[in-house]
């Protein structure tokens, strides 16, 4: 991600993950939480951190990010 438009595209894609509801606040490049999904898009660090406490799969989140056309360099699942 090299610009605010890129990070905004990722934020918008994550907002469309199954389980997100209408009326959820999506704040560009800042921590957002709704329906058990928390994510932080950092343009400065060139990374996205996603925390899911519901029934959303890793593959679903990864697929939404890839649909933006952004390269996913690495990803991992961490069990709490």
UniProtKB/TrEMBL annotation:
Family matches, as InterPro entries: HMA_dom, HMA_dom_sf
Occurrences of domain HMA (ranges): 1-73
Highest taxon of source: Eukaryota
SUPFAM superfamilies reported for this sequence: HMA, heavy metal-associated domain
GO molecular function, one term: metal ion binding
Protein name stated in the entry: Copper chaperone taha
